[in-house]
Amino acid sequence: MTADVLAQLSKDRVIAVVRAPDIPDAAALCAALRAGGIHWIEFTRTTPHLAAHLRRAVADSQDGVGAGTVLTAQQAEELIDAGAQYLVTPGCRPDVAKAAAAAGVPVIMGSLTPTEVGVALDLGADAVKIFPARAVGPQYFRDLAGPFPDVALVASGGITADNAAGFLAAGAHAVCAGSNVVPPAAVAAGDWPEITRRARDFTDSLRAAPSA
Questions:
Q1: Catalytic amino acids?
Q2: The domain that contains 116 carries what CATH number?
């Protein structure tokens, strides 16, 4: 991930993670999140027909549209072909890292322990997603900053409007907003005003956190 992309993520500070059994209009979903102040959207492989949703979202959106829960090189290549601008893995996945590097696409690689963070960096991760963040809390990010002061850490798992600012204040580069911002039922129903409201509430909660 280039320095300018990392700088933009640090400025925006939020990635909306979409896990929904059905997405009636991926471009409209992106627009709803953007209206609420969220410009990075991760569509996950747990949603059927993900490649088609990515194509629709990328064609109509200038937001950072990525693909998550990527486990294999084949999946990585398919999703990159569909337009994914970055990939996210739930753990250290060497084959995904190789496929992304070959295509020049950044990777946010999942880790939890310091050893896993080191492995992710060795594999070429551009940022490291600490998952599940709620299991370790904000102080863990302060602790990781000791041995990894220059690593872009992303807090994922259990992040809400009530605790997101705490993770950012503790050193997280960005946080992931999940079902509390993009509830699967609201996505499936195409309730874009509700998603915009939730996104706005989430981004408003971050004002207490210092900028990176």
A1: 42, 129
A2: 3.20.20.70
